[in-house]
Amino acid sequence: MTMETEEIDSLYNKLGSQKIRQLVDAFYGFVYQDPILIPLFHNDIEEIKEKQYMFLTQFFGGPRLYIEKYGPPRMRMRHLPHKIDQKAMEAWLLCMKKAIATLDLPEKDAQSLYNSFPKLAQHMVNS
C-alpha cells in the first residue's frame, strides 16, 4: 500500500458518511452557481449528488457503494461526453476547496482531503 493510498484510505475513517454527504451537498451548491461548470450538469441534481456520494465513499476507502450499483467507476470514460478543459478543472477544484472549507475539519485533514482531488480532476480533462 502506498503512502497516497494509506492517506486516502484514512479519509473515509476521518470523515464518515455524514461528512461525505455534507461535502457533496456543499460542493454542488457551489457548482450550480459557477458559470463555467453549470452547463456540464443536465441530469437530476439528486441523482448526480447520490452518484458523487457513492463514488467518494469508495474513493476515500469506505464501502464500495459505487461499484456495487454502477460497476467500475471509469470516471474518465463517463465524463468524455462533456467538454472538460483546464478552466473547468480549475473551477471544479475551487468549488471542492470551498466545499471542504464548510466542513468542521482540522486544517491537516482538510488539506489531505483537498490533496486527494487534483490528480483525479486532471485525469478528467479531455479538451
Write a structural description.
It is a single chain. With 127 residues, the protein is mostly helical. The chain is built from seven helices and no strands. Helix 1 (3-31) packs antiparallel against helix 2 (45-59) and helix 5 packs antiparallel against helix 7 (118-124). The longest helix has 29 residues, at 3-31. Residues 1-7 have low confidence and may be disordered.
Q: Mind describing the biggest β-sheet? A: none
Structural class: mainly alpha
Which regions have little confidence, pLDDT < 50, spanning 5+ residues? 1-7
What quaternary form is this? single chain
Into which percent range does the helicity of residues fall? 55-70%
List the helices and strands in order: HHHHHHH
Distance, first to last CA: 33 Å
| Gyration radius, rounded | 14 Å
Overall number of strands: 0
Mean of pLDDT: 89
By DSSP (H or I, 4+ residues per run), the number of helices equals 7
Query: How would the global form be characterised?
Result: globular
Strand content bin: under 5%
Quick overview of this protein structure:
The protein has 127 residues and is mainly α. Helix content is 69%, strand content 0%.
Notable characteristics:
127 residues, mainly alpha, 7 helices, 0% strand, globular, disordered N terminus
Write the layout of secondary structure elements.
Elements: H1 3-31, H2 45-59, H3 65-70, H4 75-79, H5 86-101, H6 107-115, H7 118-124
